[in-house]
From TrEMBL, chain A:
One of its GO terms (biological process) is mRNA splicing, via spliceosome. Coiled coil: none annotated. This is Mitogen-activated protein kinase organizer 1. One of its GO terms (molecular function) is kinase activity. Keywords: Cytoplasm, Kinase, Repeat, Transferase, WD repeat. It is found in: Cytoplasm. Belongs to the WD repeat MORG1 family. WD repeats lie at residues 14-55, 56-97, 98-130, 266-299. One of its GO terms (cellular component) is catalytic step 2 spliceosome.
UniProtKB/TrEMBL annotation, chain B:
The keyword Nucleus applies. Residues 261-284, 323-348, 480-499, 784-962 are annotated as: Disordered. This is G patch domain-containing protein 1. Residues 805-821, 838-856, 916-926 have a biased composition (Basic and acidic residues). GO terms for cellular component: nucleus. InterPro entries: DUF1604, Surp, SWAP/Surp_sf. GO terms for molecular function: RNA binding. Residues 404-448 form the SURP motif domain. Its main location: nucleus.
Amino acid sequence: MSVEDLPRKEVNVLKGHEGAVLAARFNADGNYCLSCGKDRTIRLWNPHRGIHIKTYKSHAREVRDVHVTPDNSKLCSCGGDRQVFYWDVATGRVIRKFRGHDGEVNGVKFNEYSSVVVSAGYDQSLRAWDCRSHSTEPIQIVDTFADSVMSVSLTKTEIIGGSVDGTVRTFDIRIGREISDNLGQPVNCVSMSNDGNCILAGCLDSSLRLLDRSTGELLQEYKGHTNKSYKLDCCLTNTDAHVTGGSEDGFIYFWDLVDASVVSRFRAHTSVVTSVSYHPKENCMVTSSVDGTVRVWRT
Amino acid sequence: MESDEDDFVFYGTPIEREDDLTSRKKKAIAEASGQLRTLPAWKQEVRDEEGRRRFHGAFTGGYSAGYYNTVGSKEGWAPQSFKSSRKNRAEVKEQNILNFLDEDEKAEMEGRLLGTTSQFDTFGFTAAEIARKQAEKEQKQRPSIIPGPAPDEIVVPATESVGVKLLLKMGWSRSRSIKDSHSDALYDARRQARRAFLAFSSDDPAVKITESELIKGDSENFPEQLVDDDQFSKSTPVFVLNPKEDLYGLGFDPYKHAPEFREKKRSRLSSKRGPGYSKNFSTRDRKAAPGFGIGALEELDAEDEDVYATGFEIEEAYVQEVEEPTTMSLENQRKKEQKNQGDLPGFRVASNSDYKMERFDSPLIPKDFVPHHKFSGPLEINCKSYEVTPPEVSPPEDGNLKLLIEGVANLVAKCGKLYEDLSREKNQTNPLFSFLSGGTGHDYYARKLWESQQKCNDQTSRQLDGKMPPSVQRLTAESRGQILGETPLEKSAQDPSSTIASTDIQLQFNLTDTFTKSTSFNELMDEEKPFKDDLAKQERFEQFLKEKYKGGLRTASSSLAGDMSEAARAQERLSFEAAAEAIEKGRQGRGSKSSILSSMDFIPGGVMQFTSSEVESKKDPLVEDILRKKMYPKREEFQWRPSPLLCKRFDLIDPYMGKPPPAPRIRSKMDSLIFTSDSVKVTKVDETVSSKKDISPFQQSANKDMTKSITENETEVDVEVENIERPVDLYKAIFSDDSDDEGEDPSIKRVVNQEKKAEVANTALSRLIAGDFLESLGKELGIEVPPDVPYPMQKSRNVASQKEIVNEDAKTDILKSENNGKIKSPLIRSQDYDSSSEEERSRKGTNREKSEEYKKVKTSGTRRRDYSSSSSLEEERSRKRSRHHRRKRHDAGSDSSSDDDRDRYSSRSKGRRTGSSREKSRGSEKHSKHHKHRKHESPSRSSRYINEKDSSHSKREKKRRE
């Protein structure tokens, strides 16, 4: 994939959020996207046509993260109200509220079967919540982190959490091991490469780090952007050829995966780019920002 | 009752008092007629069952009053309850004297009430009052649909206050704010003129617009008009009622839930009306951040602050649009203010003013002026007055006088000539002080004064830094040394830090340890004292430093380290060299405090350690960065146990399936608070170890053993405390039916139980509560916990065959079943029962050979039996080689040392008490659990039972020993 194929042209601006948008996420097939923000709402969009579809209101404080099941039937969200909400997409109703975190919840993810929601909280814990039973107690609490857990990522067999204590911890359910990779810098965001071999960790020292999952080796560091005080997202493109991430000055950066050179950077927003999400198949990307907009980018 | 009455014999008839009888009769009649019942509540009298008036109170009461003994009014003395005036404003009335007058008093006052006549009703109050009264009266006469008094707002005073009248006469019209109408009179006039002009010039609207634009260009008049128009709406609100232009119902607000639309509509309207009209409707609070209020019950705290609101401005196009007119109007206002500030209407600012600021030039400084002030200090005066050294004079014979002279001289030298003059003045008549004014001893005084002045000068000479002419100085040893370039002796020359006693330094050093931020002063001392542990060495080190850096006279090194061998001295010198270098480094890079501290770490050691630390201190930031990169990412691996349900949900096989549940987590901090003794750690370790299952049960049995032994040694009270458990579980243990839980899946059960166990075992509070509960329960049931139970004794004696043991177990079962009816020390019993049933099952589950071994061991009658029996069980059950192996080793060791162990345990028993109690509670918990699925023979569970079995063994053992 060449640099020209990177999504750098703004095709849509999704306006509607009042105040900062904290996360924007494509759904599994990339036809829709979800955003959530300081206005305590979650919004469902069709980013390709720029249409606002639905607003989900119930959170009492800002919504920090949202995730949707692969079948688009359920949502999970979390935020400053210390709760994890489990939504029905169609009706917009909250099916379940998972209470238990002792602090704000920074991230949520569904597992492969959408049966478990794993949330990462400021209370230094990861919690797994059961969507199948009616229990609102967590199935499991992982509290080996030494500081706020900022981000969580799931594979079929593992739970990966990134924490301010500088560690990326992989909890392998299959073998019952916890693998802790200490990066020495607060980790904001963990995202998986599409081939599942690497973890991209966004650190607060203005760098992204690519880790080999099997060995824990540091493969590459991506620098150039600024990320010192906000939780910013980063991700790999769908071909795993580039790494992308936002910056606190409103820029979006693209790095070459292998040689870590900045292949492209452009001003996308007027303020901090909080979240980036890459389309699973096409060369398309949504970004969200503190300026209250979600923007859709294409080649 | 009837039989009771039969016992009494009545003579005669009881006499009733006349009045009582009559009154009662009357009452009865009244009651019968229903008169009393119809009376209002406050007129009814309280009576007892015999119809007598109830007498109220012993001393001051009297018969009970109406209104149920209150003061005779319905409300009584009850204080008026608070009524919020917020919701029902109209109801709040001012109190006046009429409120406190009775009806008849009011009637008396009727017509004689003072009030202002309408003629003098300056503020219209009376008129308003009258109007209100009128309205009330009218309302009474024709009741309307809306009940209640007419609201004050509707009732408008009929007359106007004198101020309004005056203003109206002065040309003020309603709805205009008073202030502006006056200050802007000029502009008002101008506007009038302009209007007239416009009307005159043309009727064509197009021309009008151009005209207005012209005026706008003028930039003075147009805004004024706008402002004025605004002030119409701004002033007295009564007249600015919005005319109802829509067709909605009265009070209906279509934009109630969508205020932004109202803004839109307004702006649309205003755009119709003309530009600039909407400026007052501009959304002022739009910019106030994305404000999402939080609920009334929530507190605004740190997490609510808008972290993103820094620096960046949120881009919102339409806000900008709306804001444009605002800024314009702001500008206009500013201009207007500018204009209004200076002048009064009808006045102009004078072009030339009479008032002139008088300015004074600064005085000319003479060219030869030197801006340096010389103080005519006392010292210098003294110096001058005694430039010629007074000759040595022998002191006067009188000792007192000599002392006096010396003292005065000293004082004068210190305090200056002023003191001399003062004391001379004061003591003019005193013959003793005649030396001051040339009397006896004056020469001596002069000499002494000079001497002491010299002394003073010497002391200050260093500070004055050569201000004193050197010729005047008397050469002291120090000054001579200074001249010669010698290093002064340690005491005086070293910086003040080193003169501080070493203890102080140590203290401060410790302080700096605790507070990582240290002042430079402390840091200096840290550096200076790398060998603080060894004072002699530190001294030598200081000496070394002095030699190295300061030069000067050197003492022979042998004086300090005389008793050291040559080799040792050489080594020390090396270490000193390194330390000095480290200190130097530390001084250069104050930032790297760690290096200094690290150099402190090796203190008592030799060269080797020192050099290593030196390497550390040499680290550059760059090197550190590289090192950091090398260090990170750092991978570690831990054991982690996913919960079975999680595995299920992830569709994975539980890697820990069939393995015992992990050690219970400590849930509350209370635990660690309460159990601070070392025993806690031991038990904790024990738990974790057992969870890993890498350890032979022997060790656990040993642990259990010792805890048990401790328990047995405790007094009865302690026993009670230790046998604490959740009350519910206790009840279950006593009363629960074994069969009710049979159908359940044991594995799930175990999980549940595990959780429960964790709760029970670890929640110290509940345990304490349960302890109290138990005590009370025991009291209620009338049972005392027997210090020793006959059953184990019996058992211990019964060391015969396996069959007998089985019988024994059967007995216990019987005993247990009896427990339901007759509770006898439930706790101890239950434990015994637990152990016994445990044995039974394990025996059943194992084969003959094992039991034989067991029996054999039992007959031996020693402590060893416990271990071997457990080991045999273990052998039977466990298939893991490693564990097996390990156990064997333990076994071998334990045989020889068991007695020793026992001694050790007993000696430590005090410290272990809490731990043992925990252990026990867990045990009893297990027991209750065990109860539920006793009938299940699952091999996986036996691993857990081993412990219990062991403990039971050991317990029995203990009993026997006692």
